[in-house]
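Hi, here's the filled form for the chain we discussed.

Project: internal
Contact: R.S.
Residues: 185
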Amino acid sequence: METPPENDCCSVCHDNFNIPCQANCSHWFCSNCILGVWHHGSALQPCKCPICRRSITLLIPSEESQGHHDDPVVSEALESIQRYNRLFGGGSRSLSQRVRDLPFFLKRLLRELMDPQRSLPLVFRARMFFAMILSGIYILSPIDIIPEGILGIVGLLDDILIGLIFFLHIAAIYRTTLLSRHGGT
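And the returned structure, exactly as it came back:
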């Protein structure tokens, strides 16, 4: 979603959203609330989501907040979000964290691909197309690392693994695009 759900409130302050931002776990918070949670804990590492306890490595401000750069309060909050994303957005993360972030990034990517007013960088589209073609060729080809004809259903493991690698690659490219768009490195 580009904006927080209606009839919802920030889980930190239990009030209506004020300069909302979405974390990589898909939960919405007031930007000052989630940054306050981060400052209250260790400012040397990313904060954990107050709802699901996942590590927050990316904060994306709502579309409406980004349109109010002239307001000093909004501008300061957006700068704080950019600082947070620069600190924790590009760091190495575990494979399990990347797999947990996969649905968030793929949903956002699909929404952007379907929106005719959004345009993704040409380099991103070219890399996505190239990875999709190579993955499709491997999965559909009769040449396999683990052949299905000999090992049956176990032979599908390499195809599933190639598909997972494809989706992780696309999510990583899209994450980089989001970071560059929202103040990361």
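Let me know if anything looks off before we file it.
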